[in-house]
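Why this split exists: single-chain examples teach little about how molecules sit against one another. For that reason, every record in the complexes split bundles all components of an assembly together and asks for one structure covering all of them. Below is a record exactly as it appears in the raw files.
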Amino acid sequence: MTTRIYVPLDSSAEAMGAKKTAAAIVAEAEKRGEKIELVRNGSRGLYWLEPMVEVETPNGRVAYGPVNAKDVAGLFDAGFLKGEKHVLCHGLTEEIPYLKKQERLTFARVGIIDPFSIDDYTKFGGFDGLKKALKMEPAAIVKEVTDSGLRGRGGAAFPTGIKWNTVLGAQADQKYIVCNADEGDSGTFSDRMLMEGDPMCLIEGMTIAGLAVGATKGYIYCREEYPHSINNLNVAIEACTKAGYLGKNILGSGKDFELIVREGAGAYICGEETSLMESIEGNRGLVRFKPPLPALQGLFGKPTVINNVMSLGSVPIILAKGGEFYKNYGMGRSRGTLPFQLTGNLKHGGLVEKAFGLTLRELLYDFGGGTISGRPIRAVQVGGPLGAYVPESQFDIPLDYEEYAKVGAMVGHGGLVVFDDTVDLANMARYAMEFCAIESCGKCTPCRIGSTRGVETIDKIIAGKEVGKNIALLNSLCDTMLNGSLCALGGMAPYPVVSALKHFPEDFGIDKTAAA
Amino acid sequence: MTTTPALSDQQKKSLDDILARLKDEPGPLFPILHAIQDELGWVPDETVPAIARALNRSRAEIHGVITFYHHFRRHPVGKHMVQVCRAEACQAMGCTSLEEHAKKTLGIDYHGTTADGQFSLEAVYCLGNCALSPSIRVNDDIVGKVSKERFDEVIAELRNA
């Protein structure tokens, strides 16, 4: 009997040695004359267990991890091909509490299927959404997405349906769908996980978007730092085209949609939508003035839907199961689920897809298990390098776009970076300004010059020079950047600075009462 | 800084092939620059006039694009590119001391290349491996949970390869 074994091809799993583990399993099986079929799947997102090997048994898939090449012979000895016990065994994968407690909609297939297999993809509901969309009027597809309450998952949280509706209404000889896969924020990897582990989900989402607004061409702009994502997307695009789900005359419908992957070149600013389009066009990634909106004059001057990977990746299930189904998850105006990414100093880092409304405390302790260093958590940066540092007093606020905005923080794309009590928030504030200076496109003054002046001012504060005066200057500078910058880079770089100053003034050499 | 030598015949041929193949793509400059760097290892200044001519754009524009993006290099680099992540999640796990260790071990600062031409060192801002920080990237492979010892092992493996 042939036993099916799964070893992830995910970049993070490979960063922990998955490739060597896979090779060792194949060699060991050959040596022992055991018949196995090795499948390279995506990651389940239980990253502290990577490389996590799964063995298919009659009862379901059994997980072992972290499995290094040197552990492989011992696992065979213990009978892991039959799912037998071992010190690295975690039982049935689906029963691991970290996974069982999640609500996986966008990530329903990631880690389960072979990312390049059309059969696997369709077996787990793939292309159900596309098949429905092919029978619908464009306006009805847009309405379904609007009804779902889906908002831009890249961080800005703009209602996706409204954006699509503008493009649908625009008249042009050519329209485009652009996917923003320039996932440059520290503390995020959900886009990468989906592109590596279930690339057809993104392809399907973009194709549906094309049908909805009348676009026949799409671009995925993926960052250069993700070579595996770029490769997996290209392989999946070829497979989908061959099988008739992409390209000319999709499934005999007479509709066309062509998809091209473009590689970035290490500029963080190209995650800003207009800068990204400049980059595809072959220009310096300078941010454009708005208006005109990209929905009316976007890529190559044509009406363009530009959405993040997670937004487009959520579209197939919305079409397959209906907007109402998706809307039933979440709270307030934050509908559906968000894949939270637990990173930094946490025992159990990984991906947790849950409906909006849970708290940071649940994510940090119930899922994350506290810090890996064993020291208390002092601050969590939520929403990337432009997100606020959240102190423990705010850990019980529900994760909801509006609730977070009320306290000067943002949920963003749901990336959490955890710091223990050894962190120096004055240093982190300085880094936020330094990062903004390195990555500024240079078009607007508040961002280009403000960020450098910000670094200098924080240096003076750290050195204890005229602290009161310089704190006032820093606050005023942050106010100028926040209100006067052209895009979110200069406009939000003050968030980590101001939040660090407000919640952790002692790190800047001032006592709490003086800071208020 | 090394002065850039004129393009060899082989390099000229590669450049011509790339331009012929890609110049009619929509927004062709990025695919062209990537292809040049993948093939030659860097984007020599000597390629700029030919690119400008093929795309009917000014040399200043092409130069402007090359210098805007961190990834495009105007000088040759070592056989192995080592990038150390210094973004927040890696800082939370002590990447600052790893950065120092990397510079000391390789005997070079950021943007530098070792005398034997084996290694170049660059900073990078997020590799998307934030649950397993601190991270480095060596060529196209990412390494997670990099202690100083692990860093030394990785470098030794490459040296002996």
